[in-house]
Specification:
The complex is a heterotetramer, with 2 copies of chain A (91 residues) and 2 copies of chain C (460 residues). Chain A is mainly alpha-helical and 91 residues long. Chain A contains 4 helices and no strands. Chain A is 79% helix and 0% strand. Chain C starts with a helix and ends with a helix. In chain C, 53% of the residues are buried. Classes of the chains: A mainly alpha (91), C alpha/beta (460). The complex binds NADP nicotinamide-adenine-dinucleotide phosphate (2 copies). One NADP nicotinamide-adenine-dinucleotide phosphate binds next to helix 8, helix 13 and strand 5 of chain C. Chains A, B: It comes from Alcanivorax xiamenensis. Chains A, B: Keywords: Cell inner membrane, Cell membrane, Membrane, NAD, NADP, Translocase, Transmembrane, Transmembrane helix.
Chain lengths: 91, 91, 460, 460
Amino acid sequence: MDFVAELTLFVLAIFLGVELITKVPPTLHTPLMSGSNAISGITLVGALIAAGSDAGLLVKVLGFIAVVLATINVIGGFMVTNRMLAMFKRK
Amino acid sequence: MDFVAELTLFVLAIFLGVELITKVPPTLHTPLMSGSNAISGITLVGALIAAGSDAGLLVKVLGFIAVVLATINVIGGFMVTNRMLAMFKRK
Amino acid sequence: MQISQNWIDIAYLIAAVLFVLGIKGLTKPKTAVRGNMLAGAGMAVACVVTLLHRDIVSYEVIIAGILVGGIIGVLLAKKVQMTAMPQLVALLNGFGGGASFSVAAAEFFRGGHPDTVGIIATGAAVLIGAVTFTGSFVAFAKLQELIDGKPMGFPGMKAANAVLLLGSIVAIAYLVSNPGSPTVFWGLAIAAALLGILLVMPIGGADMPVVIALLNSYSGVAASAAGFVMGNSALIITGSLVGASGLILTQIMCKAMNRSLTNVLFGVMAEGGETIDQDEVYAGKIKSTSADEVAMLLETAQRVVIVPGFGLAMAQAQHAVRELADTLEANGVEVEYAIHPVAGRMPGHMNVLLAEAEVSYDKLKDMDTINPTFEQTDVAIVLGANDVTNPMAREDKGSPIYGMPILNVDKAKTVVVVKRSLSAGFAGLPNPLFAKDNTLMLFGDGKGAVVDITAALKEG
Amino acid sequence: MQISQNWIDIAYLIAAVLFVLGIKGLTKPKTAVRGNMLAGAGMAVACVVTLLHRDIVSYEVIIAGILVGGIIGVLLAKKVQMTAMPQLVALLNGFGGGASFSVAAAEFFRGGHPDTVGIIATGAAVLIGAVTFTGSFVAFAKLQELIDGKPMGFPGMKAANAVLLLGSIVAIAYLVSNPGSPTVFWGLAIAAALLGILLVMPIGGADMPVVIALLNSYSGVAASAAGFVMGNSALIITGSLVGASGLILTQIMCKAMNRSLTNVLFGVMAEGGETIDQDEVYAGKIKSTSADEVAMLLETAQRVVIVPGFGLAMAQAQHAVRELADTLEANGVEVEYAIHPVAGRMPGHMNVLLAEAEVSYDKLKDMDTINPTFEQTDVAIVLGANDVTNPMAREDKGSPIYGMPILNVDKAKTVVVVKRSLSAGFAGLPNPLFAKDNTLMLFGDGKGAVVDITAALKEG
Ligand SMILES: NC(=O)c1ccc[n+]([C@@H]2O[C@H](COP(=O)([O-])OP(=O)(O)OC[C@H]3O[C@@H](n4cnc5c(N)ncnc54)[C@H](OP(=O)(O)O)[C@@H]3O)[C@@H](O)[C@H]2O)c1
Ligand SMILES: NC(=O)c1ccc[n+]([C@@H]2O[C@H](COP(=O)([O-])OP(=O)(O)OC[C@H]3O[C@@H](n4cnc5c(N)ncnc54)[C@H](OP(=O)(O)O)[C@@H]3O)[C@@H](O)[C@H]2O)c1
């Protein structure tokens, strides 16, 4: 994909992100925060590629660190969001 | 741009379009309709390329028709929207 | 001068952003004018930069086309009456669909070697473009009363539609394996054109605004398909933006009429069978009145609500009404206007008209606000409105308009209905309101009647 | 097994759609759980398909990393106390920033021949990733009370920040012309890490949730920048999605606190100078009470409002409170809870706690609903709340919390404040409410005090 196409995706996604969040009741601020925090762990995708490539020790180490950190972010984020939301559910 | 990139743009733009329109007061239904109608005249861009290319008479004719129709759509649409909105303006 | 595709694409991105901001702006009263400007600027950016595209080798045809189209566009936009706005939008929309169709056709006959995606996209652009084109013209004809506004159809119509749609899809599939067949191409075009006519024919004139909004959404999708044909990001993004937002607008409009989209598109025919006898509703129960009598009523009133409808537009009575209201207010009467969301022939129709007559914005009350106040209203003056006050929508489950929210004018102490005759409104139904005990009919042209009342008031 | 980039990109598109639906779902109470699931599914799709990427030649490091990270993640999510949620989110967010930083670093040291865009993107990912990493850890430390929650700074701090930021930009510019310099790279990393620390240090602990939301937005932008480095559409789309939505969420949170974002980020230090003498406010005006006395008050009450605050969470008194409310209701008293949007230490903190104790949802009233009812309230029980009831926010223009909307408990006939001492709340301010004529202080641990009141009620 060329740079302009990437830029176009970037801009469209920013607009979409802005429009998605309109009125959120305060109760949901924390879960929304932790949930979108988990989503920003998408960097795990980049980490996987870095860790799985065949390019020297330093890169492997950095890749490993990236995978560990991103996985904590993703797994921890989604689970904790779920835990919080479970508390709101009406019995 | 490859097909998947195009598809990605398509999907993101659809989501964005859905999110953009939320609550519109009935007063603005008609201007919004004529305004987005004018925007859909973007096909003028394709018409220009078709009409300006060097590919035989049939293509030129089709291109000419396309330019005429799209231009009516664009110019008429924006102008009439503007005229309508001018009526709402508080003096 | 020609520039690299990269810069063109960046300009397209800027145009897309302007369109997004434009559409967003158009959804709020405060920002609507600016939104329209931004969208126009986006279009200018997209067009100007396209002229630098490497495929463009000559400009004669382009210039001729823009001149012809531009002049027609300006004339249409300047000359059209406000009351004819829905027709105009239908017409413009049809042109947009026709343009997408022509672009796809031109691309087809240019005879490159498109891949499967390209062929399918061409087929989609042709199909949707042609449906939009002919469908919009039927909508135009119905609104302009060139053809009857009533739902029209024939037995087996649904089957015919299904055959046309299936045939179109088969034709596209055929083109995928045999990309060069003009016969199949034109066959597809004709089938799609027919489909557009048959889809809109059975829809009643009153539902045309919704149909136009839907066709507008189609024309966006057609533009997007044309974008896939040409590999043009501006068309893809902008087309799908309009396609999606148009669909949502369609749904919002349906909601305002308390109808579902399926009901609008396919429902009317089913319910059309029942006809109600007008005589049965009206016979012996209609009380006619005069301008002087109405003026006397108004002299003792404390609160008056004016209920404008399509007849106000027909009679061009907006200025006369404002003068009546001014006179009443000078007498210490409280005057408000009840604006039904679908009064008139397009959304916001009444707002446009009354704004033209410089009626102050805060006196225009929407349905939900004004309905609870009718019980404290001494006189409700129904001015060329009919369907939007029809109590059958509230009470008669068999009625075609059952479920549409209405203005509860019959709750007012006295109702004065100004219209020329007992003939029906857009929906073609008799209105039991006219036969109620507290209703007085003032027959005559809307403008004349209002002027007479004002005069009588000033004398008395 | 390896598949073509096309299919990977389509999978990324599906993941992006799932993220969009997920975020949208998370904004509404009814759909929040499903939204979180959808987002999780999107992440699974994106990760699984990435494992088939052609650049991945060995899986040992990946598996090891996922195992280590997964175990830590699960443990953190399961073990954390609900009260410690803000800290945890800060921590997780820091990890995300660190990951983006590491990805960009790995890509840098892989030593391809990136173009200008690639280098700038690498620089941006390093800069923003490192700021997010260290900034989040400072936020974590403040919330966990590892360091003082008060705004901290030194003269010339703003200048230092400006130098660090400028230095980082110069370093990136240098890398554009000399892409291979590890020294400059690490210099950039260190400057960015310092910048993160210095930016968060001067912000008060009470504003940490906003800071975390902002840093969350940054971590999205960092991921997006990493996407530009690797040419990966999933990272670009998803990162910017989170970046933008995080920024909007930040603004919404600021609004709920009636603050501007600039005020949160830079404002506190300016106003920190003023200190208010606690003695002056309280001396001789505090009336202490006992559980028995409160029970007697409650026996004759008709309407009681419970105002929970951070102290409720500290004392784990939610179940005790519910029992008190049950007892009161059995006596025919009307009981409601007043939920301030920033009561506790995170948005929705009180809702979570009371939901845990199975307090019925409709008894939790938000600020705007309950405030007008305090005048008809016989007893308001303030339970470990402080800042959210501080009348200075309403009355004292010089106060650091001036303008924050508060619960008007002082309008109730009698106010009972349960807390352990006269010490201040999160904002570090004395509370004139405690000195009012109609206020009674019940000193003691929140849970114990409530249990005592309930017991006395049952006896009486
Ligand atoms: N707003 C929209 O978006 C929209 C769009 C399309 C359709 N519609 C439909 O249009 C209808 C609107 O309801 P409505 O109550 O405003 O109008 P209506 O039901 O169409 O009734 C208009 C009435 O005005 C009277 N009239 C016509 N010319 C007149 C004149 N010169 N002076 C005095 N009266 C005159 C007519 O009666 P006489 O002939 O006896 O004078 C007629 O009964 C609804 O059915 C709605 O669904 C609305
Ligand atoms: N919700 C959010 O998003 C959020 C996030 C971060 C910060 N904040 C800030 O946090 C504050 C929240 O206000 P708030 O009124 O809920 O709390 P607060 O002002 O922090 O006051 C809490 C009070 O609880 C008392 N307390 C502590 N432990 C207790 C125990 N075991 N038993 C009884 N009382 C106990 C403390 O007094 P003693 O020590 O005398 O007992 C303290 O005064 C606001 O300043 C807000 O801006 C809110």
